[in-house]
Amino acid sequence: MRLTSVREEDPVPARPEHEEERATTEKGRSFDRSIVDGPIRKAVWALAWPTMLQNLIGGLQGVVDHAMVGHYVGYTGNAAIGVAWQIFLVVVVFISSLFAGMGVLVARFAGANDREKVNRTVYQAFMTAAGLSICVMAPVGYVLAPSLLDLINAAPEVQAEALPYLRIMFLFSFGMLTFFMAGGAFRSAGDAKTPLRLGIVLTVLNLVLNVIFIRGLGPIPAFGTAGAAMGTVIAGAVVSLIVVWILLSQKGVVAFPRGGRKSPNWSIIRELFRFGLPTGFQGIAMNIGGVFLLRFVGSLAESAEAQAAYAVSYGQLFSFITWTSVGLMSAAAAVGGQNLGARRPDRTIQAVHSAAGMALGVAVLVGSLFLLVPNLLLGVFGMTDPVTVQIGVQLLRYLAVSGVFVCLALTYTGGLQGTGDTKGPLYISIVSQVVLPLGYCWVIQATRGLSASDIWLAIVMGHITRAALSAFRFRQGNWRHIEVRVG
Q1: What is the tens place of the pLDDT at every residue in 110-140?
Q2: Bridge partners, residue 484, by sequence
Q3: Structural contact between residues 277 and 101, judged by C-beta atoms closer than 8 angstroms
């Protein structure tokens, strides 16, 4: 089957009378057709707020990890989680790229009201991700973990804390990946509340388990930094079982297909990789850029303090902007992709612009807190070392500016990726998040010596560039003509 986008000025084709019945040919909830028929801002907000809330609640697990580790281990524990998580993301985003490709297909098929293809796509994405995660990522990540920590110039005391954390995350990450997969599938099909409920369960479990494993409880010893990883993967495993039950029970808006072949469907898998791989390479490029940026941070005279400040200020506090913006990015992708599938590209444009306006408001609000109460925010993470606090306050001032541009970049990226233009964001990210900031740091280091403020300025310049290029790419409108080909 081939679904082709149309120009904005083309007349909207009349929908067959039986179209509304097609979504119920398999058991499950029918799709929310207000996404392609109702008010556009309402559709964007209906998908955005549960995802924003989920990200904020889910982000608490990272906050708790850092806060507890900061109190019980010290700033070396904060730095360990920061660098280990950065490395882990470089690998995990490749597997997660399948879910980006899945999101394109699910949104397009949901917009066309084709439940059977939606369910087939979700099943193939799940099975492919399981194979790659268990058979490739787990063993390779475990073996290469020490070399990856050496690559980023992590201080010896930081490496000692980071290695067990990183190995646990690599070995037992499939539960978390299943949660990511389910969230992307449900949101792309128009249901953002189910991922919110799953996210709340995941976060509550993680909070309880972190309290137990980080500090110890009764006969269970204190595992410190490794305990943070143990809590994360056990919570992910429990939630993954709930996800599989929902998909098998046929109770949700997406499900595993009943009957039919369960073997690989290569036409679907090919499309998953066609749309997903550019997003995966984009994520890898951005996170490699982040790893090498950490390498520059590690080259500073006060490297451990700077890495701790970076992990908390950029890795945690700045996430209050990115968590909400990613929620709006997901909404822009889902609403935009569904309307393109329903042959209404004009509504795709409206959706992206609405999401960008909402994200901008959040960035201004959170950025104001970075400027007004930075010491209070850093104190939540147990940061009392004067040098670390000084560097963290300085970084937050730069991030208050960066947040305005990163939120615009993310929403326009969502519009591009949701409609199938995943190559554009890849090229933009390479230029703005790798070439520009790393090149700037390298030149400064080679000419006059690098300071922390130089690295923070490089971050800001990268986000400004990414926002400008993403908006320009979306306005070009090449996404209108992207086809989905599934037999």
Answers
A1: 998 888 899 999 999 888 888 888 888 889 8
A2: 3
A3: yes
